Amino acid sequence: NFTEAFGKVLRSLETKSAGFWTGPEVEGTLEEILEEIRTPTDGRFYRIARALELGATVEQLFDATKIDPWFLEQFAYIVELGEDVRTAEQFGATELRYAKHHGFSDRQIAALRPGQFASEDDVRALRQELGIHPVYKTVDTCAAEFEAKTPYHYSTYELDPAAETEVVEQRDKPKVLILGSGPNRIGQGIEFDYSCVHAALTLSEAGYETVMVNCNPETVSTDYDTADRLYFEPLTFEDVLEVYRAECESGTVAGVIVQLGGQTPLGLARRLKAAGVPIVGTSPEAIDLAEDRGEFGRVLDEAELPAAKYGTATTFEGAREIAAGIGYPVLVRPSYVLGGRGMEIVYDEKALETY
User: Which residues are within 8 A (CB) of 283 and not within 5 positions of it... i.e. 6 or more apart?
Assistant: First the structure.
């Protein structure tokens, strides 16, 4: 349904807010928000949701956005269901399954019911206890004319607990899951996609069945002839863990590769390992040494490898001291990012303070 698909969209964008109610609350009065949403922006959906919470009608939203009323009514339903989840006296199997059917993530449910769930891990634990998991359906790339060589799968939470999954029994080869690069941004992501393609080709030559997980259909790694099986899913901890579970049920999974898809899968490495998922290749601990600028500096020192002058700071005062020691201009960037995201060349102290 649309509500479930829309939930996947918001999770696949990889912003700090991964769906309604998971980020900071949109500020402003109803009148101010209605004026703001007249201009299309990448954050407009969240403002629409807030306007609905403040009592906006579909007619008011249509007047402001010119979005087809059918979609606005779907957004209104999501917001209404969110309020039902928040205020429900009891939240058990029936309520949980219905919320999942309409695209609510474990993280969203935890945010709506902080008194019942400390985190999304608690929601997942309840789902597992109740046996509530998605099933996987197939997009037939050959329109039933002949057997599809590469099945494309997508998850859905059916209301019927007996709904069947379409993930077929595995052939005689062990499988390796490859986590893709997620949403490509301008100037970023192509190199990670290229790495994932070569992982799939090399693993096939080595005798493994390859399973690609990615939310972006417009990449080479998601071409029909790259991997043996393909899942179009958001690259979140919850979604990846469910794909891993489905693949384990259909055969032997040798492990999961997180190192080649860029920052998106790298950010999942520790949690996946802690959940018992075998990580193939570079360990999450070694990944952390490479991603934490301070830790990487210590690795360089221990290995006696020369490097350009550098330093790590968590406050402006600390950054100012390091920058003065290096001399302007300086390159500033956060830890735990790849591809230049959040990076700037800073030419003076005022610009450093702003950064």
Answer: 273
